Amino acid sequence: MRKFSLIAPILFVAFPVFAQTGDATVVKAPGVVGAAQTVKATATITKIDKAGRKVTLKNEGKEVTVVAGPEVKNFNQLQVGDTVDIQYAEAVMLELIKGGGKPVARVEEKSSGSAKPGQKPAGVQARKVTVVGDVTNVDAATQTVTVRGPQRTVELKVRDPEQFKLISKGDQIEANYVEAVAASVTPKKKN
After folding, report:
1. CA 132 → CA 64, 92, 159, 170, 189, distances in Å?
2. What pLDDT, in 10s, does the model give residues 22-36?
3. Nearest to 77 by CA among 43, 124, 117
4. From CA 13, how far away is CA 65, in angstroms rounded?
5. Is residue 4 a part of any domain in this protein?
6. pLDDT digits over 169-190, tens only?
């Protein structure tokens, strides 16, 4: 079994129901600000409906049933008592580009991987979205910046006065958002 290169994407639906642990981090430097968080949850398979491809997961007394779609390979490898570990990470980073120069654009990239034949269903999925927008207005009275992106224009409140001082009309803001979810199944321990 490969612990971090595993996913059962549909199991992510159950994630918010279970008790979780995680960390959050915020970073900042002149013209750059970012935040990231990771969350982990574990559940045990209590019931499997092979005909309906339904799996019931339990964690700390809470149960949820999810449907494993066709993208969940090796469904028949699951057994009652197996443990499902789910890990989720997301991060966002905003960077000031003085004087601009990049094309205003939105680019989305996706990647995924799954278990090999015969292994427990598992894998990883990731998505990255990059958006570049032009700063069209800077309002010192409200400490807001207007940014025209490829799909819409937004007003951003800049709460840090030192960061706000760095931004001028004609600059650009590049935003990068990344999220990934991984799930692995560990076989039930034999007595």
Report:
1. 40, 13, 21, 13, 50
2. 788 999 999 999 999
3. 117
4. 9
5. no
6. 999 999 999 999 888 888 887 7
What is the reported pTM?
0.76
Angstrom distance (rounded) from CA 5 to CA 15: 18
**Helix then strand then coil, % of the chain, to nearest 5:** 10, 55, 35
Residue 175 sits in which domain range?
A: 9-186
CA distance 80 to 44: 8
Q: How far apart, in whole angstroms, are the C-alpha atoms of residue 32 and residue 174?
A: 10
Can you tell me the distance from the alpha carbon of 46 to that of 16, in angstroms, rounded to the nearest whole number? 18
Q: Is residue 47 part of a domain?
A: yes
Question: Coil, helix or strand for 58?
Answer: strand
Q: Is the pLDDT of residue 41 over 70?
A: yes
Q: Within 13 Å of residue 178, how many CA atoms lie on the same side as its CB?
A: 11
Domain count, the chain: 1
**Encoded tokens for 45:** 């398979």
Place of tokens 């994630």: 15
- The single-letter code of the amino acid at 56 is T
